[in-house]
Amino acid sequence: MNEFRDNLLARIEQAEQAVREAGERQDAYAAEVHGADLANLRRLAAEHGVK
Fold first, then answer.
1. Where would one find coiled-coil regions in this protein (predicted)?
2. Model pTM?
3. CB atoms within 10 A of CB 37
4. Do the Cβ atoms of 17 and 38 come closer than 8 Å?
5. 12, 20, 39, 50: which could join 45 in a potential S-S bond, CB 3.0 to 4.6 Å?
């Protein structure tokens, strides 16, 4: 379970960074795509009790 948790947290961090970078570039489409990915990753984390 630790590998799953670690991988999921790393993916969340990457998605958060991608959203920030898209915002800095004022790329609304990329921000929306990465934001949706981030929301899905956070939902998955919540479903599995990953904080």
1. 5-32
2. 0.90
3. 16
4. no
5. 50
Q: Residues for the chain: how many in total?
A: 51
**Cα(24)–Cα(2) distance, integer angstroms:** 33
Burial class (CB in 10 A: 0-12, 13-18, 19+), 34: buried
Q: What is the DSSP string of the chain?
A: -HHHHHHHHHHHHHHHHHHHHHHHTT-HHHHHHHHHHHHHHHHHHHHTT--
Report pLDDT for 25. Answer: 98
Structure tokens at 13: 């961090």
Q: How many CA atoms lie within 13 A of 49 on its CB side?
A: 2
